Amino acid sequence: MKLTRDLLLDAYRRMKTIREFEERLHVEIQTGEIPGFTHLYSGQEAVAVGVCAPLGPLDYIVSTHRGHGHCIAKGCDVVGMMKEIYGRRDGLCKGKGGSMHIADVTKGMLGANGIVGGGPPIAVGAAIACKRRGDGTVSVAFGGDGSCNQGTVFEAMNLAVVLKVPAIFVFENNGYSEHTGADYAVGSRDIAGRAAAFGMPAERVDGSDFFAVHEAMQRAIAHTRSAGGPAAIEATTTRFYGHFEGDPQLYRAKDEVRRQRETMDCLKRFRAVATDHGLAAGELDAIDAEVLTLIDAAVATAKASPPPSDAELTTDVYLSY
Amino acid sequence: MAQKSMRDAINDALHLEMARDPRVIVLGEDVSGGAGGTSGEREASGGIFGVTKGLLPRFGADRVLDTPISESAIIGAAAGAALAGLRPVAELMFADFVGVSFDQLYNQMAKFRYMFGGKTGCPAVVRLAMGAGMNMGAQHSQAIYPLLASVPGLKVVVPSNAYDAKGLMLTALRDDDPVMFFEHKALYPRKSEVPDGDYTVPFGEAALVREGEHVTVVALARMVVFAEKAIDAVQKDGITCDLIDPRTVSPLDADTILESVENTGRLVVVDESPPRCSIAADIAAIVASRGFRSLRAPIQMVTAPHTPVPFARELERAYVPSPQRIEQAIRTVMQE
Ligand SMILES: Cc1ncc(C[n+]2csc(CCOP(=O)(O)OP(=O)(O)O)c2C)c(N)n1
Ligand SMILES: [Mg+2]
Fold first, then answer.
1. Looking at the domain B207-335, which fold is it?
2. What is the ipTM of this complex?
C-alpha cells in the first residue's frame, strides 16, 4: 500500500521528536535536576512510530518502563511529558507518576509500567472493550525481549486467543533485558515463534526500518479485523544507551553502539529512502529544526514549572473515600 | 574492625555461608549479569544493587543462577529447591516485584511446613530491596514488609544497619523456615563497624539503640536513622528516649517494647509503610492491649500516608516520615 506524504512526514516528525527528546534527556540527566531513574528509547523509534502510525485516538496502547517513545508516537503532549519527567505540578500526571508511569487515557495511552509484564494483561482487557464497541479498534501491548519470559505475558497471549479479541503484542527485541542478553534469557531464542505457539499469526521484522514495521502492523490490524483474534510482531532493534541512565554497560562489546548507530539508525535509514517516497531532504531538515525548537521549549518550560504542593500528596488515591 | 557498607556486609554474609555450606545457591535476575552479552564479561552486574558481586567468579554458574524475568518461577524454584535439600537465596530485586510472585510465597513456601504436618520445612531466603527516598515512583519504592509479616509461616527481617544486616543474613541462611529479608535501598551505602568473620544476630531480639527515660521510640530500617536525629534534637530540651529497633518484625520482640513502655509510659512508633494494617499499627495494638496500664499518653504513630509512593521530589519528601515529624510526635506524647 502506498503511504501518503502526510503520513510519512508525520512519522518522520514523531521519530525525530522521540530521538531528540531522549538525546536531550541524556544530557539533562547529568545535571541531577531530573528525579529518579530513566530508561531511554533512543534507537527504537521506528518500532513505536511504525506501530502507532496506523492507530487512531480510539485505539489503545499499553507501554513499559521504556515508554517515552510509545507516548510520543501515540500523541501524548511532549511538554506535559517533559514536565512529568521533571516531577512538576502540571506534568501529564501531576508529577505523581514520573518517567515510568506516564499515561494519557484521552489519547488511548493506558500507561507506561514499572512492572515488566504488567502491561499485556491490561491490553487484553482494553481489547475486550474494543471488541464490545465493535468499531474495529485495536489494543497494542508493547513489551521487551525480557518481558516475554514473564508468566503474565503468556497468560495474556493465551487469553487473547481464547477470547478472540483484537490485541496486538509487539515485542521489541533490543537484545538485552537489563544486563542479560536475550539469547540467554529467551530459551528458544525465538519470540515470534513463542507467540505463534499460542495460536496467533506472528512475524519478525527489522525494527529499525519504519516501513517494515508499519507494514507488519497493517497486516496485524487486518488480521484482528478479519479473524477477530490477536496477532504478534517481534521487532529486532537496539537501544543506543544503557538499560537506565548511568548503566556502565559492561555486558556490551565496546564498539557495539557505535556500529549500531551507523547501521541500525532508523532516522538515517528513513532519510536514505525518503526521496523514493516523494519527500525532499529540505522538508525533513525543516522538521528537524522544528523538533529541536519544540524540545528546547519543553525543557525550558519544565525547568520553570512549579513543583506540586504538599497538599497534592493525598489527593487522587480515590475519587471519593 | 572494618567500616563496611550494608551492601558489602550482606555480600560478606553470602560469601561466608556459600563457602561454608555447599547447599546454598543464589538465583535471580542479573545476580551475576552478562549472560548472553556481547562483551564476554561474565559478571557484568553482580546484582542491580551490587549485593551479589563476586559470587559467580568464586562459586560458579552452578550455584549462582541468572534467571529470566520470571518472578513466579524464581520464587517457586526457590521453594522447590529448598524442599529438595538446597538452601536457596532468591533475589527479587525491588521488593515491589513481590506482587508478581505472591502465590509462590504465601500459598506455597509459607505453608509447606504446616500443611505437610511438620514433616519438612522450606529453608529459603528471599531478598527484597525496599523503600522510598530515591524518587523511583509508585512501583519501585514501597516498604511492603507488613504484607509478608501478616502471613503465618514467613519470617520477616528489616535491618537498619550494616552490622545487623550481616548477622541477620547469616541467621537467615541457617534458619529452617522461609525468611523474607528486606534491604532498604537508602541504607546500602551506609557504613558501620562490621567484623570480618562469622557472627549471627538472632531473630526476635530487638536492639536497644538508645536508652532514655521519657519516651519509647520504636523504629524500623531507615526510620532508625531518622529517629536518632529526632532523639538528638529533643535531648537538648532534656527529653531522653529509649530507641528500639525490632530488627525482625516476624517474629517480633514485643517484650522489649513492653518493658520499655513500662518505664517511660509513652510510645512513638515510626514506620515507613502506610498506616493501615501496618507494623506500626500492630505494635500500637500490642502495647494498647498488653501495656495499657503503663501508658500515660495516647500512642503516636509516625507513618507514611495511606497513598502510593509519589514520584516528585517534594511529594516524596512529604511522604516519608521525617526526623521533624518524629520529633513532633515525641513532643506531643511529652505533653501528657
Ligand atoms: C516484575 C519486574 N521484574 C523486574 C524488573 C526490573 N527490570 C526493569 S526493566 C528490566 C528489563 C526489561 O527487559 P526488556 O523487557 O527486554 O525491556 P528493555 O529494558 O530492553 O526495554 C528489568 C529486569 C521490573 N521492573 N519488574
Ligand atoms: Mg530488551
1. Rossmann fold (3.40.50)
2. 0.96
Q: Bridge partners of B231?
A: none
CB contact A260 to B (< 8 Å): no
One-letter amino acid for residue B175 of the chain: D
Ligand 1: residues within 6 Å at CB? A 65-66, 114-117, 143-147, 174, 176-178, 243; B 29, 69, 71, 93, 97, 100
**Superfamily, domain B3-193:** Thiamin diphosphate (ThDP)-binding fold, Pyr/PP domains (3.40.50.970)
Q: Quick check: A48 pLDDT over 90?
A: yes
Instruction: Tell me the pLDDT tens digit for each residue of B129-158.
Output: 999 999 999 999 999 999 999 999 999 999
The ligand minimizing its distance to the Cα of A37 is 1
> At which residue does the C-alpha cell 517480633 appear?
B252
Which pLDDT value is given to residue A321? 94
**pLDDT over threshold 70, residue A1:** no
Each domain of chain B, given as residue ranges in start order, spans 3-193, 207-335
- Please give the domain boundaries of chain A with CATH numbers for all domains: 5-312 (3.40.50.970)
Chain A CB contacts of B35 below 8 Å:
180-181, 184-185
In sequence order, which residues have a C-beta less than 8 Å from that of residue B310 and are 6 or more positions away? Answer: A95, A96, A308, A312, A313, B137, B138, B316, B319
Over chain B, what is the mean pLDDT?
98
Mean pLDDT per 10-residue run, chain B (336 residues)? Answer: 95 98 98 97 96 98 98 98 98 98 98 97 98 98 98 98 98 98 98 97 98 98 98 98 98 98 98 98 98 98 98 98 98 95
Work out the burial of residue B19: count CB atoms within 10 Å of its CB; fewer than 13 is exposed, 13-18 middle, 19 or more buried: exposed
Q: Which residues of A197-226 are buried (b: 16+ CB within 10 A; e: fewer)?
A: ebebbbbbbbbbbbbbbbbbbeebbebbee
pTM of this structure? 0.97
Cβ separation A180–B33 shorter than 8 A: yes
3-state secondary structure A111-161: CCCCCCCCHHHHHHHHHHHHHHHCCCCCEEEEEECCHHHCHHHHHHHHHHH
